[in-house]
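From the methods appendix. Each design record in this collection lists the tokenized structure first, followed by the designed amino acid sequence. Records were kept in a plain field format so they could be parsed without special tools. The example shown here is representative of the layout used throughout.

RECORD:
FOLD TOKENS (433 positions):
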């Protein structure tokens, strides 16, 4: 039997049983049969179409009799064998030394989601022939095509912009959210965090691009523009922006590697005022974004610590992340006298006026001491000596963190624009000049 006919028969079997048993009973029965990772009874399908109704009797007595499971399993197995029979097309799915049995198991695991996406898109009503054909064509494109159109997107909270749509090139843009953009997972986030907590999710980052199958399946080989843009915005200016989890998915209806990618950030209103992107910020934002995309691991390691500071609940932990970022920039060699070298190098590089370098040197040396106290179990908020050190440079710990954050932001931008100044030799030579 042709694969297209097997696909159509599997769809017909699924919807026949949905219509016979009811969507609630069918969804729950398939959850039981496939241990939640079901073909049509995924949590999203269940929540969108049916409540958890009185269907336990169906689950207990009849789930093992679902003929649609057999039809789906037969189609998936035949499709997996067809992929394995064309290694020149299927090579992007596997490493060169993967054995056939492992390949088959991985393909079946991927294909398990085929009908979940169809039923989620079509709903509890039987899809028309055009919808079934669209999914069939998408499935073939995804499995046998050379390239895949993908979309990665994120919703931005605590963020406003003077520009309604900002096109940053290569398919990357920032735009206002429309009602259609507010997908189910955002609605779930609103319920989880509360309307007041995330009512300002009005903007979205979207990156639409074309990737080879290998790039798509091994996302680390394709640097995320969404990650880079988030970091660029945070290096541009202070502000409490955060991202609700983002999707990395195929543009056509068949989605195997959907789900979230990257960090799902909770709202942190205490981080300060909402981030406001001005029209005049655009040139510098583009410059930062380009530099981040060209940078390497020696920049990303300290930059990650800078972003970690946005997720800490306690102000003291934010300070620790910022000082570790500075350590990674100015004293990465982990030799003796780290505090002294960090303070000397940072003060010299960040301050051009000699009279202002000494206060900056003392600031960096003191905050490194506070960081060491924290990492050894100390409490800055209730430590008399720590509070005395804090008041030397700011009115309280939060004001000190804001000051150190801005200095760290400047240091990371210097590292982006002039990486040659941050080699061990350059940092030492700078002190002799």
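DESIGN:
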């Amino acid at each position: 039997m042709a694969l297209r006919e097997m696909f159509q028969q599997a769809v017909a079997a699924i919807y026949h049983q949905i219509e016979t048993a009811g969507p609630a009973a069918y969804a729950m029965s398939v959850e039981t049969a496939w241990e939640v990772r079901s073909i049509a009874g995924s949590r999203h399908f269940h929540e969108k179409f049916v409540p958890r109704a009185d269907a336990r009797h169906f689950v207990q007595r009849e789930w093992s009799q679902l003929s649609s499971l057999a039809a789906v399993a037969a189609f998936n197995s035949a499709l997996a064998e067809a992929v394995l029979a064309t290694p020149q097309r299927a090579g992007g799915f596997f490493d060169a030394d993967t054995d056939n049995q492992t390949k088959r198991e991985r393909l079946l695991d991927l294909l398990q989601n085929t009908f979940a996406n169809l039923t989620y898109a079509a709903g509890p009503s039987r899809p028309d022939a055009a919808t079934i054909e669209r999914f069939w064509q998408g499935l073939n494109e995804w499995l046998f095509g050379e390239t895949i159109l993908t979309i990665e997107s994120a919703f931005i909270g605590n963020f406003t912009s003077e520009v309604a749509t900002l096109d940053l090139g290569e398919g990357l843009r920032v735009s206002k959210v429309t009602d259609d953009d507010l997908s189910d997972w955002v609605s779930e986030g609103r319920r989880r965090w509360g309307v007041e907590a995330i009512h300002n999710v009005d903007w979205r980052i979207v990156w639409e691009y074309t990737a080879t199958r290998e790039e798509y399946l091994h996302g680390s080989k394709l640097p995320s523009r969404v990650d880079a843009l988030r970091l660029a915005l945070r290096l541009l200016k202070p502000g409490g922006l955060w991202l609700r989890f983002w999707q990395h998915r195929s543009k056509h209806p068949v989605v195997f590697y959907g789900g979230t990618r990257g960090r799902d950030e909770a709202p942190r209103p205490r981080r300060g005022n909402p981030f406001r992107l001005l029209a005049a910020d655009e040139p510098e934002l583009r410059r930062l974004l380009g530099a981040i995309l060209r940078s390497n691991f020696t920049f990303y390691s300290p930059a990650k610590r800078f972003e970690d500071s946005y997720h800490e609940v306690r102000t003291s932990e934010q300070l620790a992340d910022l000082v570790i970022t500075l350590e990674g920039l100015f004293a990465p060699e982990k030799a003796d006298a780290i505090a002294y070298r960090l303070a000397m190098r940072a003060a010299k590089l960040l301050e051009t006026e000699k009279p202002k370098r000494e206060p900056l040197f003392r600031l960096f040396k003191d905050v490194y001491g506070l960081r060491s106290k924290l990492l050894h179990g100390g409490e800055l908020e209730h430590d008399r000596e720590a509070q005395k050190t804090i008041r030397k440079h700011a009115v309280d710990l939060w004001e000190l963190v804001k000051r150190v954050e801005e200095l760290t932001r400047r240091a990371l931008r210097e590292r982006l624009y002039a990486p040659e100044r941050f080699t061990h030799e350059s940092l030492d030579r700078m002190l002799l000049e």
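APPENDIX NOTE: The first helix runs from residue 3 to 21.
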